[in-house]
Amino acid sequence: MTEPEGPPASGPQAEDGTLGGYTRVHKRPPAFEGCDGHPYSVSLETERTADLRAPVAGYLVFPRWARNGVGVIGHVESPLLWRGATSVAVEEAAGGTPLVRVQEILNEAIVAAATSEHGP
What we know:
The protein is of the alpha+beta class and about 120 residues long. It is about 35% helix and about 25% strand. The strands form 2 sheets. Strands 3, 4, 5 and 6 form a 4-stranded antiparallel beta sheet that branches. The longest helix is centred in the last third of the chain and has 19 residues, at about 100-115.
């Protein structure tokens, strides 16, 4: 694959290629189709940890929507992905994640959940 010529893209279309940028530009979380064929949206969640250097950790929760979009029928979660001194630091780190990577994390979570349901 060759690199495009010219300066890097900027503006809303370039910014909405990340988790945080998409939410800022579109005023809603991005949606994905998982490797299981179901529609998902995504949200960042944070929790406190016992690590004094990075007392906040973040992970992604992917609500699985009914195929008709009427309601949430389940969810999958990523492992802890980001750690920081504050929730804001974790949110900034997560917000810079490319949507392509968020899609990969979703599919990894779907596979992990299916594996754990069916045993080793």
